[in-house]
Fold:
Amino acid sequence: MISNTKKIKNKLAKRYAKEKRFQIYGLSAIAVSIAFLLSLLINISTTGFPAFQQTYINIDVNIDSKLLNLVDKYNEKALFSANYRKVVNQSLKTLFPGVKGRKQKKALRQLVSKSARYQLRDLVINNPDIINTKQSLWFLARDDVDVFMKGGIDRSLPESDRRLKNFQLVWIDKLLAENRLEKRFNINFFTQGDSREPEQAGIKGAMIGSLLTMLVTMLLSFPIGVAAAIYLEEFAPKNNRWVDIIEININNLAAVPSIVFGLLGLAVFIGVFGVPRSIPLIGGLVLTLMTLPTIIISSRASLRAVSPSIREAALGLGASRVQTTFHHVVPAAMPGILTGTIIGMAQALGETAPLLMIGMVAFIADVPQGITDPSTVLPVQIYLWSDSPERAFTERTSAAIMVLLGFLIVMNLLAVIMRRKFEKKR
Amino acid sequence: MINIEKREEFDIKIDKTVGKPFIKDAKFSTRNVDVFYGEKQAIFDANIDIGKNQIIAMIGPSGCGKSTFLRCLNRMNDTIQDCHISGDIKLDDEDIYQKQQDPVLLRARVGMVFQKPNPFPKSIYDNVAYGAKLHGLASSKIELDELVEKSLIRAGLFKEVKDSLHKSGTGLSGGQQQRLCIARTIAIDPEVILMDEPTSALDPIATAVIEELMIDLSKKYTIAIVTHSMQQAARVSQRTAYFHLGYLVEVNDTNTVFTNPEHQLTENYITGRFG
Structure:
């Protein structure tokens, strides 16, 4: 007969092996996910970082009033509608004399961004005295030049496969030799709205749009969600058919595809209530619908986790149910409620699909000033740019993703800080 | 020894509470109290008086309904969804279950100390001051400070915590926490204090401190205590009630219950034949 000790001993090696195996599974799972995460981050940042730089081109501009077609240089209206395009083009011709042929002339004009004429206009309107003088000015370079400067165009490729032809490369080499091309920090990316020209396109409009939309979402979903959770958890009669129906519906809503909320918003807020489309207000309303189930479910879970002994203690001292709830239960549940809210908000921040339904996918160049100005949001902007054929938009797409990730990190940090603060208080 | 095969206590009939359940000058008196949890009846026809400035101990095996009965006295059972109560429970000759009775006011008059120490996750000071603030018992900060100090002194905790009044109440030891809960209860100066196994989570030394405190408090307050420790019941109480499977079997002076029990079940329990 084998003793129990021996029986156990015989099995021991097997048990330890099992434990070890499980540890290896766990570690390899973590390693795989870290590898995926890293490759994602590295990919996005290597593609996106060049977008934070922009090539500028230096041209000597002869601001000739004849070319401008300007008689009275102090007439503001005339100054506004003067022909700045011709001045910029003429300056380019002076820089590269002897360019022949329609195609080459067109290519020459396209060295600088279309924004050059507006930049010149603003300069002249601010200071009309520079008319009929020669100025050395820095303009935004066209996206192709910019891409070339960042190494996006390979010289060794056959000419037919290149965006820039040989004659254009000759010009760029000349500009480089004269120190007329320079890469600077791309301030436009953070101070401008969207644009059809990649070199002018910025993310400020989408950033402000996201901020305003999140503000509306936060202000609506947090109080409504928490109030609903508190009522359902603390005050609603238990085992009541209506309460059960509401509960089941909330749980189901959390699993509804987000685009459905967009359709609902379109039908109800825009269709019935006539809220204008494309504005942060409607975006916030739709995202509120989407985040409410998340907030309610997680808030209820953390309210339920509060020890019943705290409730009994307060009730036993003669506190009413509302006092018990707000003096003791809600503060104790606050860290959990905040975590749930931030998770919901982060989800809303990255949401695209429902916003497509309510017109936030429109091309909007202006930076919104309030919750009733047309605007777009970061994920939609990313979606729009990723759809654009220009090479320079690729890097801007990745850069916008980096900004979006930055937003998410800031929000999560905020959540951690707030949770710490609440936990310390207790 | 416990006979598992045949638990003879099931065969013993319980007609009517024996001993002396009724006294003159009762603080609480209950008549024909039945308590149901949904379909299940937890208390059958409980009739008992609780005397003023006395300690009454409620003993009995687990699940006999003694805690349920205690929680009827300050309507804590109201918070349990499908619990309902019939019969009369009178505090100073007023029915506490009548419509006009406000449960909040009742709980201010009938305080409660729970089995597990449950201080709020706040400072010691705030724990004691909470009830007073809630009911507006102190008109100024100085008055409140005095009240907190007085309550902590009465609960025998002041010496230990006077330098850490603003530290968290949850950082205290188990026995200190329970005394903090007692201080919190007496800060609103109730007439009755209900204690639901207040020392079951504490070590013997902390238990002794709290028992002394109970005897001291009984000069001013009426105390009803549920306990699993017969020694504790014998040490602190003047009267003892024995519950069995929802029936109130016997009520008498503590001495009589422990030396000369009238009912067979009581005798079985106190001699350790079951329970």
